[in-house]
Amino acid sequence: MHEVMEQTVDTIRWSVAHGIGRIVFDRSDGPHTLALAATAALARAVDEVAEARPRVVLLSGSGGLFSAGGNIAEMRAHAETLESYLRALVDIAHPALLRLSQLPMPVVTAINGPVGGGGVGWALCGDFALAAASMKLRTGYVALGLSPDMGASYFVTRRVGAMRARQLFMLSDPIDARQCLEMGLVDEVVPDSELAQRAEALCARLAAAPRGSLAKIKHLCEGAMQRGLQAQLALEQALLQECTHSQDAREGLQAFLEKRAPRFH
């Protein structure tokens, strides 16, 4: 891992320090939107954080709103060329989102406030989704005559199932944090004032875990539903055997026998 000095481009801020990569939707003077320039900056942030190989990545927002999704004013300005505008936008955003969601290290999202449209996919792309009590989620696409993008249909369906996902997208009603937790859209709801601290604590815990074990867990779980049992068992065996050669496995076993906390590499 190497550190990345804090940078801010457009409304995206990012850095890597002490094993934690941080990407922030950084706008306190109004709602954050995924305008074309901001999306390009977000893609750059994902690339630079990924290349630094931190032990965990935290995606969060500043101010009182996580992301409102697409920039409606920018879409309206491109009304006559909307197809090409949206193609350019998703051609930047989708590869970045795919890379972030497929990183071998844990990804934590801290949803600090309302989220809508394309912001939903980014909010739910992590392995852990923490929400502030003030968070509200609205899919929003139907109101604009559009269909989901930014992975929203994938991540919502993966968390709540296909039928419930259809309903959330078709009705586009605002859903508060408690409802999101009950549905399984998010993993935890905390008071607004405690969200940053809770997210940092979770990231610190994950950063102290063995990197190889976490990467293999992500790999095994991500494709488990598509592989048959025989293929899954074979992959489990292969990855387990890889672990046996690691310094972390030796340390974990020794720490267990000595009844102490492990100190992973």
What's the helix and strand layout?
Blueprint: E1 4-9, E2 12-17, E3 20-25, H1 36-52, E4 56-61, H2 72-77, H3 82-101, E5 107-111, E6 115-116, H4 119-123, E7 128-132, E8 136-138, H5 141-144, H6 152-160, H7 162-171, E9 175-176, H8 177-183, E10 188-190, H9 195-207, H10 211-222, H11 229-244, H12 247-257
Parallel strand pairs: 3-4, 4-5, 5-7, 6-8, 7-10
Antiparallel strand pairs: 1-2, 2-3, 8-9
Protein described:
- The structure is a single chain.
- With 265 residues, this protein is an alpha/beta fold.
- The protein has helices spanning 36-52, 72-77, 82-101, 119-123, 141-144, 152-160, 162-171, 177-183, 195-207, 211-222, 229-244, 247-257, and strands spanning 4-9, 12-17, 20-25, 56-61, 107-111, 115-116, 128-132, 136-138, 175-176, 188-190.
- The strands form two sheets. A seven-stranded mixed sheet has the order 1-2-3-4-5-7-10, sandwiched between helices.
- Helix 1 (36-52) runs parallel beside helix 3 (82-101), helix 6 crosses helix 7 and helix 10 runs antiparallel to helix 11 (229-244).
- The longest helix has 20 residues, at 82-101.
- It is globular, with a radius of gyration of 19 Å.
- The two termini are 12 Å apart.
- The mean pLDDT is 95.
In short:
The protein has 265 residues and is α/β, with parallel strands linked by helices. Helices cover 49% and strands 17% of the residues. The longest helix has 20 residues, at 82-101.
